[in-house]
């Protein structure tokens, strides 16, 4: 019986495929018509003469209608598309016959496509909702404002909604396939507009659980230290842990910061913070929108295993020059955007610079200090140029340049007649550049092709000079180290919407990685042989293909099914990866929905970390024949409950398992962190699980959210900690935070942020051993040794930040004074713990546990002007 069933199934599949193939062959036959004007009956006879195809049709088709063809050579299918409207008729092929059948009016549909833009600036609006107000079916605009969806002819009107903008309704009198560009008017009162369709349908937003949007409005309302920092806003979301002071990057679902894919206008960014993690590198005035994805990853993203942060810069105002500048406690910034050619070419430029170095220069000069000098500054430049060639073609040029530079100089007396002068410099920075071309192929297909350059470098210089008695300073030691990574990438992605129930995304990406682990130069007066290690580049080619399909199965069930395949090739080794992705959303009723997701992710780049603090001494290195890619599987399940309009409760549980993560060996000790690195690390695995809860209010004068995360994360290495599992460095068990924004009136508003996190685990040395110095062969240095890993917890972390905005409308813009406090009650949060050794008068040593705290109470005041 089973054999009979298999045989019947095989015949059924064979019949379906054969029938589909026969229909395709029939319609793809080529025609060479002798003229361009025909009566429908004459045209059918001509087609029959050339192909022997017989036509059958209903009386609804006007047999005597005259048609004018655009050309004379094309396929049967394309010819028929010019004869009648496929939204009113459909083609059925059987044997060598074509049946033209009238579609009932209740089932007839027409397509609407185009772009959604800001009416005042012309900025593309990302994820704007377009929907039918009667059926509550619709779609959203993509990352470039493009949308396409089907609408039933019996109810042709549709609405557009976007947070912070007035709703707009479009009414059609002529129901046919239409291309339209829609402009939404900003709501100048900054009143959150509730998208009614969000309560009625689940196919409009295209966003699943574990995904959050951060808008330009969000950044304007929430500031710390006078700046609306992106990372600070993200840190209050569920599953995003609050890091220790002086620890940069995002810790998302217990993953390390290097496991986050950070994209700035499609370009990967490798180092993302300034000033020991106090600020991110992303200038808030240049950001249009950002999307954080923690699970259920779409197939279009790859290369990291923990999260995706997709940041989009503003295009620029198409009608007038506008911008803002601000002068704050630590930084100043200026942003200007506007048209070069109105309606066609726009620009957006933002610059930011800190002036800690100027303050330290002043302080040291006033104190007449010649023995000690320190300075630090960072700067950012964002530039974007956009040109519209036509309604179908648009080109973007995006550039980011950022730099941090720290210097130290000091003089000290080593003995009565020997003086040492030391000069240290460390610099690091990103450079990204991308050229993108958008093209609307037709009302169903949208394409985006991008060429990308991304570069990250850092260098260290250490110079020491000695002076004996009254002689001149002479150099006796010099060391220089340089490392970096450079990517050249070509990617092309497409949005294809063939019908109301399907939304395809597919594309490919090719990246050439040029990694320079480190070149160093060392010379010493005590060692006549100069030690130079030249830069040895590691070249790798990464190629990826992906496809995903969002399917509306019923009015309640929506899924996104995707697959990503990648190949990473080095000189002596090639890795292949197949990554299935699945997310699903089920709408129980108008107020409750359930979500689930499954993702497989791969990461071919490892970050070798050599410091507990947020320093750029970490080195990016690719996999090789010994070190395998990081692989991760994540499962998540959650729900959203719309308690009432503007008030919602979200809950989610997740489980994530990762393998091939790296940790330094027990006997690791090196001077630069790069030499023979694959022999000094141990591969292992980790697993983490957690539950995330968020209560959110996003309408009215009082807005905010309360977030709690309970999570656990462990790691295991074969040769570390006696092979036993132990808490991961990012195992923060409890994380609690709230954020409240209160608008007192049109001129005054304030924000209060509070966060709490239980202590992170740390490893402390149990003994000290002596080893030969890497700099002086006749010297020894003390090196710590460890027995148990992460068996001690730091003190808990908590902090309160407050910010007040005082606004006033001026003749040419708006003035804002911001007064804020970082760490209002001056909590001494730990940056790191260490063992301190002291000696008494008899030379006996005692040990004590010490804590290093960096950022305490920091008041701030800033002035900004929006014009």
Automatic annotation (TrEMBL):
Molecular-function GO terms, alphabetical: siderophore uptake transmembrane transporter activity
Main location: membrane
Mode of membrane association: Multi-pass membrane protein
InterPro entries named among the record's database cross-references: CarboxyPept-like_regulatory, Plug_dom, Plug_dom_sf, TonB-dep_rcpt-like
Protein name per UniProt: Outer membrane receptor protein involved in Fe transport
Protein origin, superkingdom: Bacteria
Family per similarity comment: Belongs to the TonB-dependent receptor family.
Sequence ranges assigned to domain TonB-dependent receptor plug in this UniProt record: 210-304
GO terms, biological process: siderophore transmembrane transport
Swiss-Prot/TrEMBL keywords: Cell outer membrane, Membrane, Receptor, Signal, Transmembrane, Transmembrane beta strand, Transport
One Pfam family it belongs to: CarbopepD_reg_2
Signal peptide: 1-22
Listed PROSITE patterns: TONB_DEPENDENT_REC_3
Keyword Glycosyltransferase recorded: no
Species the sequence originates in: Ancylomarina subtilis
Subcellular location: Cell outer membrane
GO CC, alphabetical: cell outer membrane
